[in-house]
Amino acid sequence: MRKPKTLSLIIPVYNEAENLADFLQAVDRFNFGLRTELVLIDDGSTDGSAEIIRHFAFKRKCVFLQLEQNRGKGAAIARGILAANGDIIGIQDADFEYDLADIPRLLEPLIAGSCDIVYGSRFGHLSQNTHRTVHYVANQIITRLSNLLSGLKLSDMETCYKFFRREILQNIELQSQRFGFEPEVTAKIARLKVRVKEIPVSYFPRNYIEGKKITWRDGFAAIWALVKYRFFD
C-alpha cells in the first residue's frame, strides 16, 4: 500500500460569515503534516459566506465550489468528495467546535498504514468540554443503535472528524442530503472489510445563537438513515 502524502480537507459552509475569515486564516496556515488542499463548498449561503471565501488570499491550494441552493451538509460533502485529490480525505466543519491541532494525531495511523478510516471521538478523555446536554444523550442513543446494526464499536458515530483513504470514500455512493451523511457513511463502511480506528479529540460545542444548525429532526432522520442503509439500501 502506497504511503499517503496528501490530504484533502472537505469543508462545507453554510451561513458562517461572522467567524469565517478567522477560521479560513487558521485552517490555511495550520501545518497538518501532509501537503494539504482545502475543498470548500458553499451550500447556498445567504449571508455573504461565499464572497468571503472567494476573496480570501489562500496560501495553500484551495478548491472552491458553490451549490446554488441550500441542499444540506451531506450534499455539500458528496460534492466535495468528487473534487478531492488527496490520498486521505477528511471532513472539517467551518467553525471552531473542533481543534485543528487534533488532526495530525488522527492522520498518524492512516499514514502508518495501520488503519483505513479514523473517527475522532468527542467522548474520550480529551473531551472535557463536551456538554452533557440533550444532544449528548441523543448522540449516545444513535451511536449505540449504529453499533448494534453495524457491528462497529464506536463511542461517537456522529462526530464531524472522519478521515478516510480516498479510494474507500470515493467508491461509496452517498445519498443523504443533510446530517444523514454520518449514519449513512458509517453504515456503508461497516459492510466493507476495512479497519476503523477511533481517537479522542477536543470539542468546544456552540449553541444555536452562535450558529449551531443540527436539530431534533436530524436525530430522527439519523435513526431512519441507520435502518434504511442497513436493511433497505
Based on the model shown, name its key terms.
233 residues, alpha/beta, seven-stranded mixed β-sheet, 8 helices, globular
Q: What does this 3D model show about the protein?
A:
- Helix 7 packs parallel to helix 8 (216-232).
- The protein is globular and about 45 Å long.
- It is an alpha/beta fold and 233 residues long.
- The chain has helices spanning 17-29, 49-55, 73-83, 103-112, 134-150, 166-169, 181-189, 216-232, and strands at 6-13, 35-43, 62-67, 88-91, 117-121, 162-165, 196-200.
- Helix 2 links the parallel strand 2 and strand 3 (62-67).
- It has a 7-stranded mixed sheet, with helices on both faces.
- The chain is built from 8 helices and 7 strands; from the N terminus they run βαβαβαβαβαβααβα.
- Helices cover 38% and strands 18% of the residues.
How are the elements arranged and paired?
Blueprint: E1 6-13, H1 17-29, E2 35-43, H2 49-55, E3 62-67, H3 73-83, E4 88-91, H4 103-112, E5 117-121, H5 134-150, E6 162-165, H6 166-169, H7 181-189, E7 196-200, H8 216-232
Parallel strand pairs: 1-2, 1-4, 2-3, 5-7
Antiparallel strand pairs: 4-6, 5-6
Helix pairs in contact: 1-2, 5-8, 7-8
